């Protein structure tokens, strides 16, 4: 139980943030918030040693037991790694935000509430073993990220970016939900663990492919894969701490996590291998190529994030091949999954530091436009050092951790070229070529980011502010991440044994019994292998193309903006906006008669259609009591009273007609031996008539002008249809019972469970206690509102009288 509650600690802490912000103004709110992720890091760090040995921890908190929905926290190597990234990077981001966000100018209570909400949502995503709760937390990440991206809501670009990200990721989430539902229909369980166990039995199911595609749509939209990546660059309008957290280490990694978690279920499918690997490589190439078109520092990092996510995704696809091969090649593809997780850790370190440096440059110079930047190396030496470490790691150079995982990536792509199943021996030949070309562009944009910013000519007239080095508090977080970039290069196997292998064992549970069975050793030097020569080629060609960048960068201007995915998205949204507005104008006429006509038409069509399709028409008078003559008289009185209420030209006559209907209904309750209901009806009817008379006394008399309304056939048909529908429902409900009536349960338990002798009173007070309580509450609120309005009016009259 306690393990589940860890997920909600940030959410609970968010409740206190507004109070801290308002009551303690001398201290930056971030210092209080910092304690939350730091505490969670310590808690999750206590699991590292046991999880590294292959142990798993599971706890359950019932949520909706009637629907078999629970919050199940499952901590294995994969979920623990992500939990540590979420809380560890989260701690550094909060520390960075303390110095980045001004406590006097920013609405910090909003920022930290959104951030903590997002942290809980991400922990829920990576730890949930239940499909429905995973979806709940998944969409909560979209909502909270929408709030974070749109934090500066007075800016049009922030609102646009927030809406764009939510539209794409929530749409993908709905697709993913469809895949989850299909998985449940196939396996009969919501548990991911149980679905993995029965995965071999699911492959031949006709819904398997549909579930696979829908789930990947959710993963691809969240992790900014091609062509859904378009939301990520626009999300850069968020404050830099948000970009460093959401778009380098957490939210965009949710899609990566989803693919990794469901690999044991879907990896046996050829389609899974092709889609994950192919889309990943295409995203890698697309993001790395177009990163050099950007002029905004965060825009460059956004496209670099897209490319790096594609790299990790392609490695997960390559790792899925391990489910299809045996022998010597088996280790190569297991190696791909190891490389995917290793690069995921590396990417979080160097990309988090680079985002923070981009924020520092913007904060200290007033611009992120790379065309205006340059010559900052001597002015901001610490920032330059961190930027160089992060950029060189991203470029895949030693002695930085990105070099190790990039070499693994090239090894995996070369191995795919030799894979003979699924047609990889033909089309698979493109994989190492695309990977190599994309790596060249990765090298170029890494150098482009660091040297165009810090090297070159210093242009002080271009800066809105006088540049200077950032305060040490703002540099602590990126320096810590940069230190990890270097440290991991020298101790890769310690990281591998502690974090990567347990995660790989969770991704490939059928291939390994424990993390210790994974025989993979990482080294910076592995001989004169093809990947080494590919790296040398990347460096040589990358340097030449970077030096010549001004001569060929203009090629990007040849790509027409009208053919971009962003333009397609804008056209779709504009078309929907105009089209839906026109449709709404057709039925939003302002006429209550039209609205009732639409609603009644829809209700009649749905209900009568359901009755017809389900063959629910059933009319039987068996067991019905005979109708007495005095009951017929009362029915006639009811009809006459109802007609009088509708057709009366005098309010008094209408009130009398309405009262006669109510009192007649009370007589029916007496006849059918329901004295309590009859008494209640009489009291309510008497009060209602008195209130109506009191209210109408103050209203003007009805006008004598008559308005003749033309007979309209469509309204007559709808009126008759509604009457027929209600009659058929009443007769069908009376004539057949699909489920036993609850009245028998009331009869049997009214005394033994509720301790009452009057069944009506017991139903109202006990069985429907909350319903009755809410009704009383609503009436009390309405009464207080009326009393307040009366007193307000009386006070105004008294003041007016005093003024006179």
From TrEMBL:
Membrane topology category: Multi-pass membrane protein
Domain (MrpA C-terminal/MbhE): residue spans on this chain: 716-791
Subcellular compartments: Cell membrane; Membrane
Record domain NADH:quinone oxidoreductase/Mrp antiporter transmembrane: where: 128-424
Keywords tagged on the record: Antiport, Cell membrane, Hydrogen ion transport, Ion transport, Membrane, Sodium, Sodium transport, Transmembrane, Transmembrane helix, Transport
Pfam families (alphabetical): MbhD (PF13244), MbhE (PF20501), Proton_antipo_M (PF00361), Proton_antipo_N (PF00662)
Listed transmembrane segments: 6-24, 31-49, 80-99, 111-128, 134-154, 166-187, 207-232, 244-266, 272-292, 299-323, 335-361, 373-395, 429-451, 472-491, 532-549, 595-613, 625-647, 654-672, 678-699, 711-731, 772-790
InterPro entries per record: CPA3_Na-H_Antiporter_A (IPR050616), MrpA/MnhA1/PhaAB (IPR005663), MrpA_C/MbhD (IPR025383), MrpA_C/MbhE (IPR046806), ND/Mrp_TM (IPR001750), Proton_antipo_N (IPR001516)
Highest taxon of the lineage: Bacteria
Keyword set includes Chloroplast: no
Segments forming domain NADH-Ubiquinone oxidoreductase (complex I) chain 5 N-terminal: 64-112
Main location: membrane
Domain MrpA C-terminal/MbhD per the UniProt entry, residue ranges: 637-701
NCBIfam families from the UniProt entry: 2a6301s01, PRK12645.1
Family: Belongs to the CPA3 antiporters (TC 2.A.63) subunit A family.
Name used for this protein in its record: Multicomponent Na+:H+ antiporter subunit A
């Amino acid at each position: 139980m306690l393990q589940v509650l860890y997920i909600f600690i940030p959410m609970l802490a968010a409740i206190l943030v507004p109070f801290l912000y308002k009551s303690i103004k001398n201290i930056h709110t971030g210092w209080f918030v910092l304690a939350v992720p730091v505490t969670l890091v310590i808690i999750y760090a206590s699991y590292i040693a046991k999880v590294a040995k292959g142990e798993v921890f599971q706890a359950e908190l019932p949520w909706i037991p009637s629907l078999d929905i629970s919050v199940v926290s499952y901590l294995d190597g994969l979920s623990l790694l992500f939990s540590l990234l979420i809380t560890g990077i989260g701690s550094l981001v909060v520390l960075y935000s303390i110095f980045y966000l001004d406590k006097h100018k920013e609405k910090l209570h909003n920022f930290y509430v959104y951030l903590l909400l997002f942290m809980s949502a991400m922990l829920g995503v990576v730890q949930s073993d239940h499909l429905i709760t995973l979806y709940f937390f998944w969409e909560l990440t979209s909502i909270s990220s929408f709030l974070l991206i749109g934090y500066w809501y007075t800016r049009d670009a922030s609102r646009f970016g927030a809406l764009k990200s939510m539209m794409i990721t929530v749409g993908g989430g709905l697709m993913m939900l469809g895949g989850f539902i299909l998985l449940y229909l196939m396996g009969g369980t919501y548990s991911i663990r149980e679905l993995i166990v029965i995965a071999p039995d699911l492959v031949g199911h006709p819904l398997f492919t549909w579930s696979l595609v829908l789930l990947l749509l959710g993963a691809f939209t969240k992790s900014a894969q091609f062509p859904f990546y378009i939301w990520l660059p626009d999300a850069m309008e968020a404050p830099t701490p948000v970009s460093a957290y959401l778009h380098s280490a957490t939210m965009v990694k949710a899609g990566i996590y989803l693919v990794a978690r469901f690999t044991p279920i879907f990896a046996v499918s050829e389609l899974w291998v092709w889609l994950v690997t192919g889309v990943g490589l295409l995203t890698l190439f697309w993001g790395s190529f177009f990163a050099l078109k950007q002029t905004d520092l965060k825009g460059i990092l956004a496209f670099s994030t897209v490319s790096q996510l594609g790299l990790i995704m392609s490695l997960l696809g390559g790792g899925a091949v391990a489910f299809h091969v045996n022998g010597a090649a088996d280790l190569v593809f297991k190696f791909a999954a190891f490389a995917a997780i290793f690069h995921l850790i590396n990417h979080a370190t160097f990309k988090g530091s680079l985002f923070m440096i981009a924020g520092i440059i913007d904060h200290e110079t007033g611009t992120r436009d790379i065309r205006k930047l340059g010559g900052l190396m001597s002015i901001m030496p610490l920032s330059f050092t961190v930027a160089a470490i992060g950029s060189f790691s991203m470029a895949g150079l030693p002695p930085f951790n990105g070099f190790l995982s990039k070499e693994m990536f090239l090894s995996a792509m070369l191995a795919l070229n030799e894979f003979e199943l699924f047609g990889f021996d033909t089309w698979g030949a493109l994989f190492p070529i695309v990977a190599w070309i994309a790596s060249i562009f990765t090298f170029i944009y890494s150098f482009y980011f660091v040297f165009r910013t810090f090297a070159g000519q210093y242009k002080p007239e271009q800066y809105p502010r006088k540049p200077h080095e950032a305060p040490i508090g703002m540099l602590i977080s990126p320096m810590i991440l940069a230190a990890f970039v270097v440290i991991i290069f020298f101790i890769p196997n310690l990281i591998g044994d502690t974090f990567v292998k347990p995660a790989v064992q969770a991704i490939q549970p059928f291939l390994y019994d424990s993390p210790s069975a994974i025989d993979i050793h990482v080294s910076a030097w592995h001989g004169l292998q093809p990947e080494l020569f590919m790296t040398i080629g990347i460096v040589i060609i990358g340097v030449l193309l970077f030096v010549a960048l001004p001569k060929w960068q203009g090629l990007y201007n040849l790509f027409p903006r009208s053919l971009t995915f962003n333009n397609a998205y804008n056209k779709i949204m504009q078309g929907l906006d105009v089209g839906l507005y026109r449709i709404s104008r057709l039925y939003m006429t302002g006429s209550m008669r039209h609205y009732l006509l639409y609603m009644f038409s829809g209700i009649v069509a749905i209900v009568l259609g359901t009755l017809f399709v389900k063959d629910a028409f059933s009319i039987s008078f068996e067991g019905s009591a005979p109708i007495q003559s005095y009951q017929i008289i009362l029915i006639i009185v009811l009809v006459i009273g109802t007609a009088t209420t509708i057709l009366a030209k005098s309010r008094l006559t209408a009130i009398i007609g309405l009262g006669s209907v109510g009192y007649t209904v009370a007589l029916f309750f007496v006849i059918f031996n329901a004295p309590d209901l009859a008494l209640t009806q009489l009291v309510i009817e008497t009060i209602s008539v008195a209130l109506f008379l009191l209210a109408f006394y103050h209203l003007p008399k009805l006008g004598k002008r008559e308005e003749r309304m033309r007979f309209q056939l469509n309204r007559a048909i709808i009126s008759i249809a509604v009457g027929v529908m209600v009659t058929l429902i009443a007769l069908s409900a009376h004539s057949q019972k699909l489920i036993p009536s609850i009245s028998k349960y009331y009869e049997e338990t009214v005394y033994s469970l509720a301790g009452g002798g009057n069944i009506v009173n017991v139903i109202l007070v006990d069985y429907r206690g909350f319903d009755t309580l809410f009704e009383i509450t609503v009436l009390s609120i309405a009464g207080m509102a009326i009393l307040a309005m009366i007193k307000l009016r009386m006070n105004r009259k008294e003041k007016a009288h005093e003024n006179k």
